[in-house]
Design brief:
The chain has 540 residues and is an alpha+beta fold. The protein has ten helices and 19 strands. The longest helix is centred in the middle third of the chain and has 109 residues, at 202-310.
Length: 540
């Protein structure tokens, strides 16, 4: 049944009869906006809003203005507060309906003989949902509510399954922990089976275990972050590889496009040359034929005159005309004259030769293009004196190193090479690419590359990838080699052309890699020329 109510100028609106439609009411409809709890002694103020009497009174007692906390309407005289009986009755009905609903839920069923009963229930004991180890009291759903609402009680953190927290043998609360047997105890267990064992209060062991768990969790989180970082590094490497491939494709397309254009241009020029040859021969033949036809005409005319003269009966005319007609005509010697049909092999050969020259020029550009691309990863490398072998001599700026004649008195640090005259760069690299240039001109003995941070720096050193070294060297001036699983010879011609000469593949890096330098031994390198880290000049 729906009714309209009005009280103190406040329209409550349409309210449903509790008897017929209590299921449509919710707790939010009966909450005080100050304490956020169900109304206690609800009062209505002139603006129409409702509050607990104590809440609104306390609010006004602490404020200079008498205004509504909801709509901020100010009252020049403090309103007289009276209990809104209608809302009070509605709240009472609501509490009753909630209680009925709670007792009908499975959680609020009567406690059975083996259940833990609610300590606060009067009359019929309901089944407890949780037990507070601070209050040492068990609560049903209704009486547990303060532990879920009141800030001070929230810290008690009630627990379920109190039976699991009781000693099976003595039916006492488990309050101790035996470190000897790694088990929980009650006070009676301590007096019997665990009298001589290392026992501590449960809270103390809990604190230590919790700290251990937090430490382990922090370590796991760090491992997760490291792996996430590694995933990002790998993804970044894949992206770099994709971009590198795209640039390679772009460069190759450009090179081949230029080559195709050059070929097409050469082909067009060759066709033009070849087509011009028969045209020139035709023009030459036309000229020769014209001359021959002119001579033929003259000869035919002379032949006619001679024939006519030979048939004359006039002796005087024959004798007078014969000398002029018997004189040879001025004609050309055609025996050595001809029109040649030249083959175009020479022309094609010259065109192909020019095309090969163009191709070689384009190929010479590729190393520079790739080198320029790699040079964008240039880093500023400085030598680390703490790693230098005592025989090595560094420049003040840390950019040059050579082998000296005497051993220097230096502290034997863990990072210092003790037997092999080597030195590392100061900065290590854990991801990405890095590029640097070293001048080795004039030296006959040296090794350069990268080294893992954890390499062995004491005693005998074998420059191999399995030992953490990725290097190439020149030994005694005999030849250049990459030090992989075996000695891999390097081409000096390729090195001089600034082209790619070798890659170490199948490498896995889990730590920093440092620039590595071996400046050689004086016995083999008589000039004692230093290794010089030079600034990277970008290739034009």
């Amino acid at each position: 049944m729906i009714k309209n109510y009005k009280s103190y100028g406040f329209t409550f609106g349409l309210c449903l009869d509790m008897a017929s439609s209590s299921s449509l009411l919710s707790e939010e409809q009966f909450l005080c906006s100050i304490c956020l709890d169900v109304f206690t002694e609800p009062v209505s103020i002139p603006c129409g809003h409702n509050f607990c009497k104590a809440c609104i009174s306390g609010y006004w007692d602490t404020s200079d203005l008498c205004q509504c906390p909801m709509c901020k309407e100010t009252f020049y005289r403090r309103p007289e507060l009276r209990i809104n009986t209608f809302i009070s009755e509605m709240v009472a009905q609501f509490r009753k309906s909630v209680q009925v609903k709670a007792t009908s839920s499975p959680e609020q069923c009567p406690a059975q003989p083996l259940d833990i009963p609610c300590d606060f229930c009067t009359g019929m004991k309901l089944k407890a949902l949780k037990s507070c180890l601070v209050c040492l009291t068990s609560y049903g759903e209704t009486h547990l509510e303060p532990h879920q609402r009141v800030a001070a009680l929230k810290r008690h953190n009630p627990v379920e399954n109190l039976e699991d927290r009781r000693c099976k043998k003595h039916e006492r609360l488990l309050e101790l922990f035996c470190r000897t047997d790694q088990t929980c105890l009650c006070v009676l267990c301590l007096k019997t089976d665990h009298k001589t064992h290392d026992t501590v209060p449960l809270e103390e062991e809990y604190g230590e275990r919790k700290a251990q768990l937090e430490k382990t969790e922090a370590e796991v989180q760090q491992m997760i972050q490291e792996r996430l970082k590694k995933v990002q590094e790998i993804k970044h490497s894949v992206d770099l590889s994709k971009r590198e491939a795209e640039r390679e494709i772009s460069d190759s397309v450009q090179v081949f496009t230029d080559l195709v254009r050059s070929i097409e241009r050469s082909q067009a020029e060759l066709i033009e040359v070849i087509e011009e040859k028969p045209k020139a021969a035709e023009r030459q033949a036309e000229g020769i034929i014209k001359e021959l036809e002119q001579e033929i005409t003259e000869l035919q005319r002379r032949s006619t005159e001679l024939e006519q003269l030979s048939h004359t009966e006039d002796h005087l005319h024959l004798l007078q005309s014969c000398p002029s007609l018997c004189t040879p005509l001025h004609t050309k010697d055609w025996s050595e004259i001809s029109v040649h049909s030249d083959l175009c092999v020479g022309t094609v050969r010259r065109a192909v030769s020019q095309l090969e020259e163009t191709l070689n020029k384009e190929m010479e550009k590729l190393p520079d293009v790739k080198l320029k691309r790699i040079q964008q990863y240039a880093v500023d490398v400085t030598l680390n004196p703490d790693t230098a072998h005592p025989y090595l001599i560094m420049s003040e700026d840390g950019k040059q190193v050579r082998r000296g004649d005497t051993e220097q008195d230096l502290p034997d640090k863990p990072v210092r090479f003790s037997t092999c005259p080597c030195i590392l760069g100061k900065e290590g690299f854990s991801s990405g690419r890095f590029y640097y240039e070293v001048t080795v001109k004039g030296k006959t003995d040296w090794a350069l590359g990268g080294a893992r941070e954890s390499i062995n720096r004491k005693g005998y050193i074998k420059l191999r990838p399995e030992n953490g070294y990725w290097t190439r060297w020149l030994r005694n001036g005999d030849g250049y080699e990459a030090l992989s699983e075996s000695f891999f010879p390097l081409s000096l011609r390729e090195m001089e052309s600034r082209s790619h000469i070798y890659s170490f593949t199948g490498c896995t890096f889990t730590e920093k890699v440092y620039p590595f330098f071996y400046p050689g031994i004086n016995d083999c390198d008589k000039s004692s020329v230093p290794l010089i880290i030079t600034p990277v000049n970008q290739t034009e």
